[in-house]
Structure prediction request, 276 residues.
Amino acid sequence: MLSRISQICGSKTLIMGVINATPDSFSGDGIDIDVDAALMQANHFVKNGVDLIDVGGESSRPPSIYKGVKPISVQDEIDRVVPIIETITSELDVRVSVDTFKSKVALEAIKKGASIVNDIWSFEKDADMANVVKNADVDVILMHNTDNPKYGDVVEDCIRGLKMVVDRAVKFGVKQDRIIIDPGIGFAKTPTQNLEILRRLSEFKVLGFPILVGTSRKSTIGAVLGLPVDQRLEGTAATVAICITKGADIVRVHDVAEMSRVVKMSDAIVRGWSDK
Prediction:
């Protein structure tokens, strides 16, 4: 059995690489249902130092920003992600996460080797997800998200919201050492609010769980730099470096080769490095 993510956090920042099994990913890197292409991408990630691979089959693009975003069926999502997860876990020695908020998708993914569930709705959209995570005894990423984005102090409100979903997960029987938290950059937040969260990321440490941050190629970077999604590499690098200085344990990225260098350099400064 794989060790818990919480047990391997601390000595270095973990890199989570993204594989989008979608035709409509906001980041422009969706591979749709192409198992060979996914395995090639996963191989590239592993060769460049990835620690975790996150496979998603449904775009999480906010409808408020991206018009025409439509949900897909449970079966369509299973058909997209499960063959990819099965192939990666059978061919490569790497932890795989399934990016879904649907319990049936998570269950099928776990059967084929996924050891992490990345739920952008933290059990809110599918209460059965808690039982899937608990019974399978896998790691789970609980992200701050809301259908009603009204904030006073955005950081304090996000911390409060995350505490509520964590407490609920524990009440459902999920083990505390299986929980990772994500402040939800780009989800129900303005660019200004996202930047405030990044600036004050260290405050989320009060919750006592490993912190994952996903800023890669996101619209906040585009807003600040005035650049399209395919020109946000440097902006992503800046956010990754800042997040590490502020206590991030895991960074979720698309450009693994480039970001692994950013992580290595940032870790050398923040966590220490020796030339011996």
User: Anything to note?
Assistant: The chain has a mean pLDDT of 93. Residues 12-269 form a domain with the TIM Barrel fold (CATH 3.20.20.20).
